[in-house]
Amino acid sequence: MKGLTLPTWQVVMREAHDYFMITIGLLCYAIGWILFLLPNDITTGGVAGVASLVYFASSHAIPVQYVYFGINAFLLMLALKIMGFRFSIKTIFAVFMLTFLTSLLQKLTVGVVMQIDPFMASVIGAFFCGTGIGLAFISNGSTGGTDIIAAIINKYRDITLGRVILFFDIFVISSSFFVFHRWENVLYGVVTLAISSFVLDLVVNSARQSVQFFIVSKEYERIGRRINKDLHRGVTVLDGTGLYTGQGVKVMFVLAKKRESTTIFRLVKDLDPNAFISQSAVIGVYGEGFDHIKVK
Asked: What confidence score (pLDDT) does residue 160 get?
């Protein structure tokens, strides 16, 4: 059809890789939630935590995946409007896939009860859950729930994903006291949240880490405008001269979050595979879109 642009093989493989990594992340999350947290009466945060509370309060009569899926249906409407179709379509995939994986794990582990020391269950379960959420995020997806809210806030504010999720989830964890009437369960839930948030920040390299790029390309205008549009990052174009060739070149200077590095590399490679790119870490970046200048 006229005007229809078909995706290249490179784009198809990239998207397939993202969906594969999201699935691996969801499997990690499902293992931590179903095999370690639920059998030991430990509530995680967010929508999964709400689903766990309903599961415990109903004496295991209402499966967690049904409540999880229902609440996420509403949150996905917000994601479609604010985060865009690309983020949302992968999140929709993640919600359906996690619902399927939790159901599958419950069926496969019938009669297998992973009741261990509650503290160890919290640590192991949190490790799997944090890793799973992190893998989903770096693949432009989400496990749904408060992850969607965290991604929306992180888009506009310089706050780490793990910290946002932690703030939102404390309320859910505290509510578990009214189900179990034991403060021990609340404390184990807090431990789970703290560890999963820490692991999440490690996986996504933390939102406060920044990098700088020097990009030399004949397609500097197209690349620069795509960086402006897709990442909302400023691009400074410098005039340079190649000492060997004696020809003038355009050098783009870009500051971005470390988690955005992969997107920039993909973008440049798509528009100019022969571009020259230099990436380096920076200790601190202050100004609009980054940290605020703090002087005592």
From this structure: 62
pLDDT of 202: 81
Contact 250, 216 (CB under 8 A): yes
Question: What CATH number belongs to 210-282?
Answer: 3.30.70.120
Q: What is the pTM of this model?
A: 0.67
Between CA 12 and CA 292 the distance in angstroms is: 39
pLDDT digits (tens, 9 = 90+) for 31-52: 999 999 888 888 888 888 888 8
Listed by start position, the domains of the chain span: 9-203, 210-282
**What is the spatial distance between Cα 27 and Cα 40, in angstroms, rounded to a whole number?**
19
Band of residue 296 on the pLDDT scale cut at 50, 70, 90: very low
